[in-house]
Amino acid sequence: MNSKLNKQILTLAIPNILTNLSVPLLSSVDTAVVGHLDEVYYLGAIAIGSMIFNFIYWAFGFLRMGTTGLTSQSFGKKDEKEIALNLFRPLLVALVAAIIIISLQYVIAEISFMIIDASAEVEKHAMEYFYIRIFAAPATLAIYVFHGWLLGMQNAKYPMILLITVNVLNLFFNLLFIYQFEMSSDGVALGTVLAQYFGLLIAIALFARKYKNYLKYFSISEILNLSKLKTFYKVNSNIFVRTLALLFVLSFFTAESAKFGDDILAANTILLQMWIIIAYAVDGFAFAAESLVGKFIGAKDFDKLKLSIKYLFVWGLGVGLIFTLIYSIVGEVIIALFTNNKIVIQLALVFVFWTIISQLINSVSFIWDGIYIGAIKTRAMRNSMLFSAFAVFLPTYYLTKEYLGNHSLWLALTLFMVVRAVSLTLTARKNIFSAK
Question: Is 114:127 a contact under the CB 8 Å cutoff?
């Protein structure tokens, strides 16, 4: 056992785990707060509104993932100029994208609510949520870039400070607006907007504290270098398509849940929140994989590359096993924390076993994601996701929904993750271990 390498993994992973877990845990508090309001449709509204923003923002997840992969490889090569430009280029893209998102907000809303088949009350409050939260776009996308760049710099401490602060502020504002000002889903949206802009200020302050010397490499002509932009586009367009496919699956899951009624929608929202918690936990090691794999490939240290991948899977699967045990033992208690609605609790207990069995399966996919991003082998990631989404997830659901009802959604989601894990494993020899 290489203790030095494990120390590097844990030094990166532990802050990332704390950072990542703060996202679903604090959003779970949001869900619990809204779930205890008088009407169940507030919870549905948050689910639908969040789904729309997941689709918007996660589609730009390449601003975080691609930035980490490119920066970590530049870090391994010790190319300071390119390290700096790997921050400036995506920041420019983030600004342009945010302007476009805000400009198209009415079109986005029209299309989204045309597709989603929810009750009138859920749709009304989801729309209210949407038109407030949309103005967080510039801050949200810029934070993605800073987060990815800092990870590429092998710095997991600053992202931890940044994102935990943002999430705590988000929680504070949400509780303030709901309990002090008697708002509902609109208060949750406003709290998110304020927290994101505070977060952007914190990101800039952290950069200025340690990395301001990289500002000397700022150059519009270098940022717009066609050759470098082509590489940036190639890497990130694959991540963009891959993320859209993932978002399609999760959004489809929520939209189809709404067709089963508000109670099923609420139950699935809670269970999906539990399902996502493992993603954020294991992603601590996936983020460590992005940083280390990119660094070792950039430095052409292939022995450490292989050893780090081995250790990353050991740690990631260990976390998955822990959550399997936790959900098996206290799953009912956790569900009850989200809502006091007895019907929703009873429905969630019917389907909770899908969340329990998914933990180890999901861990494999999440670790491979980090490895492929660090290696900048994003085309293989894209192909795996597209196949799993459209050749496995959708056919499974449509072939079984008449017989299994809501179980068909969970079966489809589980098989989707199984196929992702298998396909990424099978193509790793070609894409990762032949990185020389």
Answer: no
Number of Cβ within 10 Å of residue 357's Cβ equals 15
Single-letter amino acid, residue 352: V
185-210 vs 120-133: helix crossing angle, rounded to 10: 30
Longest CA span, the chain: 63
Distance (Å, whole) CA 320 – CA 357: 10
Q: What is the pTM of this model?
A: 0.80
Residue of 82, 76, 78 lying closest to 222 (CA atoms):
82
Residue 112, burial from CB neighbour count under 10 angstroms (0-12, 13-18, 19+): buried
Name the residue with tokens 């794999």: 293
Note whether 258 and 116 are within 8 A (CB): yes
Identify the CA nearest to 283 among candidates 422, 156, 431.
156
User: How far apart are the C-alpha atoms of 392 and 399, rounded to whole Å?
Assistant: 11
pLDDT in tens, 271-312: 988 888 777 778 888 888 988 998 898 888 888 889 999 999
What the block records as the tokens of 339 is: 């809502």
- CA-CA distance, 70 to 290, in Å (whole number)? 10
Name the residue type at position 264.
I
Over the chain, what is the mean pLDDT? Answer: 86
Which residues, in sequence order, are CB contacts of 432 under 8 Å at separation 6+? 293, 309, 371, 372, 375, 377
The amino acid at 186 = D
CB 398 within 8 A of CB 406: no
The full set of domain ranges for the chain reads 3-431
| Six token digits for residue 32 | 């619990």
Q: Is 237 exposed, middle or buried (0-12, 13-18, 19+ CB in 10 A)?
A: middle
Exposure string (b/e) for 291-300, b if CB count within 10 Å is 16 or more?
bbbbbbbbee
What is the rounded CA–CA span in Å between residue 11 and residue 426? Answer: 29
Closest by CA to 32, choosing from 199, 283, 274, is 274
Instruction: Give me the phi and psi of 16, to 5 degrees please.
Output: -65, -40
SS3 396: helix
